[in-house]
């Protein structure tokens, strides 16, 4: 059975030829006009990036290497007795486009567990952070500091040839993913517990170890939730803020730790990954204001008051999606199976029946339907992970999978420095003055 690195080494030469052929055949073809509105409008819909791990369809949602979430749930290897996909398998799929065997997935679990230790100075950085520093800022600090031992940065200093970039990038990508549980676990225990961490078990899978570090390793349903959670949050094509930032920073040949540290800073924004925290804050405020088991009328009034206050309803809307996010659906199905009577889950269901109609009536949001963040916090809360300021860290652990996979391919395919053209408003007026 080949390892992931062996398999990549086999795939890379053919993919280099494949890309050459695409560029020879289609390289000079236009992808359609660019509207001035797109320059001012956050580049919505502008085709600008290559991203192989996943593609997002506005109606259908995400497909990882062509596979929908239900297909991944069916096809990817599971833990013994489990029914959710192991994120190890999803990473193999993102990197190679192939479904791995159980043995290959176990190999990745072992490899990541063996690489999981973080340097002592990174532990000290985290231990010195005030508990009032947001967990995402701590996370980004620690990931950036891992650059100290980057194989890519060292190889570059030693004069590595361009054609060999992918090897040390692969090693850094694997180290990055492997070390995130110890970083996330340490932040969680420092901020919300007594700072003491159990050791990684070299024979357990990634999600089991992550759950153990948080103190929930004995709860098999929670471990299953983490497997699903990491899988569905891993990748959402290339244009979202965290993925695009990682690719952009990586294009300067900053190593994967620097690149993904930058991704995390983008994920920490409330319109992106922080929305999972914001949803819980918003639901709790709603409960304080109108009580638990509130009527539909009271919930409607609360939603309108949010909009009238000039705020967004967190967890709703999307820059690309125009239907309910299949990641929301996957989490809803998990909840229906494992926690159908949870009161907060019932509130999320009530909100789902109410918010889209209000957003439609308000008439601004292009997509009134829920996104992934509308559901994730409720599931974590159910199992006792109630500290909402921590939720985006879990999104960050997951997003490393997608960004790392693309960074490996970018270096393998010799992706150039990203440097699009910008214009001033004065320049745009000048260009179109005579038209
Ligand atoms: N609540 C209230 N207003 C909204 C919402 C919402 N959930 N979604 C969009 N709008 C508004 C938006 O603020 C904008 O208003 P204005 O014209 O005054 O600037 C208008 O509707 C048009 O926005 P869209 O073109 O529909 O959305 P856009 O592509 O600009 O932004 C989001 C997408 C996701 C940033 C936006 O829908 C939003 O702010 N949602 C709430 C925050 C959220 O859930 N973010 C998480 C996204 C998923 N993730 O994990 O990253
Ligand atoms: C994501 O998972 O990155 C979010 O849904 C945001 C996006 O795709 O733009």
UniProtKB/TrEMBL annotation:
* Alphabetical UniProt keywords: Transferase
Record's PROSITE patterns?
A: CITRATE_SYNTHASE (PS00480)
Keyword flag Hydrolase? no
The answer to whether UniProt assigns keyword DNA repair to this entry is no
What does UniProt give as GO cellular component?
mitochondrial matrix
Give any Pfam family that matches.
Citrate_synt
Task: Output the GO biological process annotations, alphabetical, semicolon-separated.
Answer: carbohydrate metabolic process; citrate metabolic process; tricarboxylic acid cycle
SUPFAM superfamilies, sorted: Citrate synthase (SSF48256)
Q: What is this protein called?
A: Citrate synthase
């Amino acid at each position: 059975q080949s390892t992931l690195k062996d398999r990549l080494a086999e795939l890379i030469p053919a993919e280099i030829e494949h890309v050459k052929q695409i560029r020879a055949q289609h390289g000079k073809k236009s992808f359609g006009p660019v509207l001035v509105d797109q320059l001012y409008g956050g580049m919505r819909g502008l085709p600008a990036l290559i991203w192989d791990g996943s593609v997002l369809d506005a109606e259908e949602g995400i497909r990882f290497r062509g596979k929908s979430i239900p297909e991944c749930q069916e096809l990817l290897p599971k833990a013994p007795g489990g029914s959710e996909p192991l994120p190890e398998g999803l990473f193999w799929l993102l990197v190679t486009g192939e479904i791995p065997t159980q043995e290959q997935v176990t190999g990745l679990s072992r490899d990541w567990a063996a690489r999981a230790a973080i340097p002592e100075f990174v532990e000290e950085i985290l231990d010195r952070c005030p508990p009032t520093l947001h967990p995402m800022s701590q996370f980004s600090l620690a990931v950036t500091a891992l650059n100290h031992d980057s194989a890519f940065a060292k190889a570059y200093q030693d004069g590595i040839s361009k054609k060999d970039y992918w090897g040390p990038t692969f090693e850094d990508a694997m180290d990055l993913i492997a070390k995130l549980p110890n970083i996330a676990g340490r932040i969680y225990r420092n901020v919300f517990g007594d700072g003491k961490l159990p050791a990684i078990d070299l024979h357990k899978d990634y999600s089991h170890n992550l759950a153990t570090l948080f103190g929930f390793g004995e709860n098999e349903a929670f471990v299953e939730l983490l497997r699903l959670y990491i899988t569905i949050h891993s990748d959402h094509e290339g244009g979202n803020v965290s993925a695009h930032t990682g690719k952009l920073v990586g294009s300067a040949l900053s190593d994967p730790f620097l690149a993904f540290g930058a991704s995390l800073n983008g994920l920490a924004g409330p319109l992106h990954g922080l929305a999972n925290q914001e949803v819980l804050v918003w639901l709790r405020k709603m409960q304080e204001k109108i009580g638990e088991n509130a009527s539909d009328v009271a919930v409607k009034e609360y939603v309108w008051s949010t909009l009238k206050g000039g705020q967004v309803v967190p967890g709703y809307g999307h820059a690309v999606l125009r239907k309910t996010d299949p990641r929301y659906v996957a989490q809803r199905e998990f909840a229906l199976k494992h926690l159908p009577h949870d009161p907060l889950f019932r509130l999320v269901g009530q909100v789902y029946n109410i918010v889209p109609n209000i957003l439609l009536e308000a008439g601004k949001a292009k997509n009134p339907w829920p996104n992934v963040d509308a559901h994730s916090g409720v599931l974590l809360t159910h199992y006792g992970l109630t500290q909402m300021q921590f939720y985006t860290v879990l999104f960050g652990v997951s997003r490393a999978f997608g960004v790392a996979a693309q960074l490996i391919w970018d270096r393998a395919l010799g992706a150039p420095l990203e440097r699009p053209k910008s214009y001033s408003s004065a320049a745009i007026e000048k260009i179109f003055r005579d038209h």
